[in-house]
Amino acid sequence: MPDGGWVATHEDITELKATRSVANERLSLQALIDCLPDYLWVKDTDSRFVVVNKALALDSGRARTSDMIGLTDFDLHPYDVAIEFRANELGILRSGQTIVDREEMVFDAAGNRRWLSSTKVPLCDEQGTSIGLIACARDVTARKLASLLRDGQAKILEDMAIIAPLNAILEQIALLVEFQLSGVFCVIMLLSDDGAFLRRGAAPSLADMFAAASDGIRVGPKAASCGTAIFRKETVIVTDVAVDPLWEDYQHLVVGYDLKSCWSTPIMSGIGEPLGTFAMYSGMARSPNADENALAKLAVHLAGIAIDLQIHDGRLRAMANDAYQTKEAAADHESGLR
Q1: How high is the pLDDT of residue 16?
Q2: Minimal CA–CA distance to 236: which of 211, 255, 261?
Q3: Which numeric CATH code is attached to 14-139?
Q4: For FRET with 301, which of 28, 201, 286, 310 sits at 20 to 30 Å CA-CA?
Q5: In contact, 40 and 53? CB cutoff 8 Å
Q6: What is the CATH number of domain 146-324?
């Protein structure tokens, strides 16, 4: 003031400080859980997300964790998956029992199949009433796929041992590889007896019309991916079937099927004779990655064993039949002499 005095005002900010404290705690909590590579979330009794960490938000196709708040599994997953999640969570809320390391299969925002090991704990108030649940989940996809691959190989080898139908075994091989990958379709072709053509062996995930149209591809130096692979006796990688000269005469095969690339490997017998081809088709114009190359190698090995066994079994049966016919003829001849 002009006379040397002053005027002071005071404002009660107790409530403001408390609000700021809560906000800071929440920010600190969010920063903490966003550091976790595993999924972490909290839901209310209607299964709506109220807290979500960054890992879950990003893999669910959301740029920010706040974009997940208020959503349910019905906004993220196919209906049948969401229904199962809701039923499980209702069971937790009603029973108050914790679920530990439950294996669940989901699809991420990119459409890739993922397996999670989930732990879900009921969230209760002071009276013990369930007011929601808190959960965390770890991605165990690599472990799960390795287990399925091992079990699938064992089943295929068992079927080989009992000489199951060849087309059934080849279909199992194709599906085994497809299940390990995303956006890849497998086709197994068999070499004709005269070595001039490739015949359909298995194409479980491609339309019958495609399989029928590709049946009878000629072996040669410019015969798409498969016919060329058999001709060269080496893997042929076509990254874009629309422009590669090997596919000039075979464009009609892929029209309408959204197949952009094809990688084919010849299937050889134990003594180096060509038996057929194993091909992977992708909806993207690209080369195969390391995992796809490794699976193609495995599929070619299994298919080669299966085809070889069938051929040898057929030869053994033919030899046995010839021996039987010879024995019967000799018996008839001896009977006639008597």
Answers
A1: 54
A2: 261
A3: 3.30.450.20
A4: 286
A5: yes
A6: 3.30.450.40
Regions of the chain with pLDDT less than 50: 316-320, 322-324, 326-327
> Count H helices, E strands: the chain?
9, 11
d(CA 98, CA 13): 42
What pTM was computed for the model?
Answer: 0.78
Q: What is the CA radius of gyration of the chain?
A: 32
Can you tell me the distance from the alpha carbon of 39 to that of 138, in angstroms, rounded to the nearest whole number?
6
DSSP-based three-state secondary structure for 271 = coil
Distances in Å between the alpha carbon of 276 and those of 161, 219, 305?
21, 10, 12
| Contact predicate 192/198, CB 8 Å | yes
Q: Which residue has the tokens 């991605």?
A: 139
Distance of CA 69 to the CA centre of its chain: 29
Query: How far does Cα 62 stand from its chain's mean position?
Result: 23
Helical H segments across the chain, by residue range:
14-34, 54-59, 79-95, 141-161, 166-180, 208-214, 224-232, 251-254, 290-337
Condensed to tens digits (0 to 9), the pLDDT of residues 78-128 reads 999 999 999 999 999 999 999 999 999 998 888 888 999 999 999 998 888
3-state secondary structure of 204: coil
